[in-house]
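Most newcomers find our protein records easier to grasp once they have seen one. Nothing more is needed to start thinking about how sequence determines fold. Here is such a record, shown just as it appears in the course material:
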Amino acid sequence: MDIKWDIQGLLIYVTMAAYLAALVIVLIKRTPGAGRGLFAFAFVAALAAYITRWVISSHLPMQNLFEVFLLMGVLIWPVSLLTERMQRSQSWVMPAGDALIGALVMFPPGFVFSAAPRHLPPALQHFLFGPHVATYMIAYVLMARAAIPAVAALAGRYSGQRLIDAERQSYGMAAAGFPLLSLGLLLGSVWGKLAWGDWWAWDPKELWSLVCWLVYMFYFHWRIVHPKQYFRTRLWLVLAGIACIVITLLWVNLSRLFPGLHSYAT
């Protein structure tokens, strides 16, 4: 376990504590507005940690998994704030899920990955570095939020209108994240051509990014083909998508069996 004792680490742990406190409050009160102040405070602490990292690293902090998870910890609150206005849900499930996601994504930078600054490789010293990574991270947060009602519905064995409403809510998040997932794939292809001389290098991370895209594409296709049935199958497809994202983000980067061009993300 890699505990950080500097100001950067302190801000990470404060962020985790705020997200966990928000989760407890939401679970106790079971109202969508519970814990709003703690959510906002967690965002401020996460943003301060990210800015601190930027100063320490002297480059845009999106290079490795420590920085990527830190970025997702910053994105949780603004993404949640924007999307809840779109869906206008009165359920406490999404805020609870947001708080849980926030705590989970802050755990790796807090206790797992090294915070040692690293030199930015030449391939990352490109104007597409920031847009490519940021687009994917926003998409991943949206897809994680799409999984919240899916987990609630399947674990709670929802039925009838309640199941339909949960699937619609899950679909709304996935529909918002899919264009960004597509854009991230496109930007990565263009960047690959400029940096490595080829649009597609059959890199393990490239392949799993494509798998993620295809799973969600199949989900949307399944939804169109079966508009009034198989609601649970739809939710399972959403969970399959987020599972592929976790594999893309973690296993592909950390596995030594399948090294690739994205090995600098470890």
About this structure: The chain has a mean pLDDT of 88. The helical segments are 7-29, 36-57, 65-87, 93-112, 129-155, 160-196, 204-225, 231-254. Residues 256 and 263 are 9 Å apart (CA to CA).
